[in-house]
Amino acid sequence: MKVSEAARDAQPIATTADKKSAGARPCISADFLFRNLSAAVAMFVAISLLGILVALWSEGWDALHHFGWKFLVTTSWNPVSEHFGALVFIVGTLISSAIALIIAVPVSFGIALFISEMAPRWLRNSVSAAIELLAAIPSIIYGMWGLLVFAPWFGNFEPWINDHLGAIPGIGLLFQGPPMGIGMLSAGIVLGIMIIP
To answer: pLDDT of 77-88, one tens digit each?
Structure first.
């Protein structure tokens, strides 16, 4: 098979070595870039969490040093006699968070399932936008709404709930006290609404 004159006179194909020697920039792999960027972001998150732990430890060291480890397991809070205990606040945080998760997880899964599988196309975008708008509301607004709007409204139903569910062990603790709507159950409901998005 004869090579034609035109093929012989054509420019030779440049090899990788020719390109490098000509000063062309080497191509960066997209996988390499993604891997390194992901590693950098993961390191940033880990360093941020470590920084939070260091800040908590350094700021809380004075309280732990002065009151000892019993500060974490006692319930008294008396500024006059300087007896302080954080157990009430720790348990309250855990209870309200548990109530919020019990409410928010099924509701969130239901909303996600409805948006992705069942909602018609014309409704899907508006419901999705409304849920995303809930995430944009600051937590202080949720707290003020819960205190000034939800708690008084919930106080109307609390006597009935207390009469019918108050005898159940553990459940009655969620709304004991005067029926003002301010308690662990209402705090958990407001927190659950806040974390739905």
So the answer is: 888 888 888 888
> Beta strands 77-78 and 83-84: pairing type?
antiparallel
Per DSSP, what are the bridge partners of residue 83?
78
Surface-to-core class of residue 100, CB atoms within 10 Å of its CB (0-12 exposed, 13-18 middle, 19+ buried): buried
> Distance between CA 190 and CA 142 in Å, rounded?
7
Residue 51, C-beta contacts closer than 8 angstroms, at least 6 positions apart: none
Report how far residue 178's alpha carbon sits from residue 132's, in angstroms, rounded to the nearest whole number: 36
Cα end-to-end span (Å), the chain: 71
- DSSP class of residue 10 equals S
Backbone CA torsion sign across 185, 190, 193, 196? negative
What is the residue whose two structure tokens read 């809930």?
134
Query: What is d(CA 196, CA 101) in angstroms, rounded to the nearest whole number?
Result: 9
Beta bridge partners of 77: 84
Cα–Cα distance between 4 and 7 in angstroms, integer?
5
Q: What distance in Å separates the CA atoms of residue 22 and residue 16, rounded to the nearest whole number? A: 10
pTM for this one? 0.67
pLDDT per residue as tens digits for the range 39-83: 999 999 999 999 999 999 898 888 888 888 888 888 888 888 888
By the 8 A CB rule, do 184 and 95 touch? yes
Indicate the DSSP class of residue 69.
Answer: G
